[in-house]
Design a protein that fits this description.
Pfam families: NIF (PF03031). The chain is mostly helical. The protein contains four helices and two strands, in the order βαβααα.
């Protein structure tokens, strides 16, 4: 098996995400990996890469100092499902805080 060595990219490893169906098996830097299901041409319902776009956009805008700590918080979970769950929880907290803020402003 051919192993991916992300250190050969000449990039800061704190800013690299490696997406692959065999990421954990084929990459030497597991902390940078997001494993996705293998693409099958006949599967018309495979939207996993599209589903990852909101997460990737968020990470690009948030610009964490080390992406590996972000990815570690998703370890053992489906990144897409966990990101959606966290986003909903965040929206609920924002709404609750805005309601509390309105009560105090009156």
């Amino acid at each position: 098996m051919f192993y991916q060595d992300l250190s050969k990219l000449n990039r800061n490893p704190a800013q690299v995400i490696y997406l692959s169906a065999h990421a954990l098996e084929s990459c030497l830097q597991h902390e940078n990996c997001v494993e996705i299901k293998p693409f099958k041409l006949e599967d018309k319902n495979d939207t996993q890469l599209l589903d990852l776009i909101p997460f990737l956009e968020y990470v690009a805008m948030a610009r964490p100092s080390d992406i590996r700590t972000v990815l570690a918080s998703y370890q053992g979970h489906d990144v897409v499902a966990k990101f959606i769950e966290r986003s909903k929880e965040h929206q609920q907290r924002v709404q609750e805080q805005s309601k509390l803020g309105r009560l105090w402003r009156r």
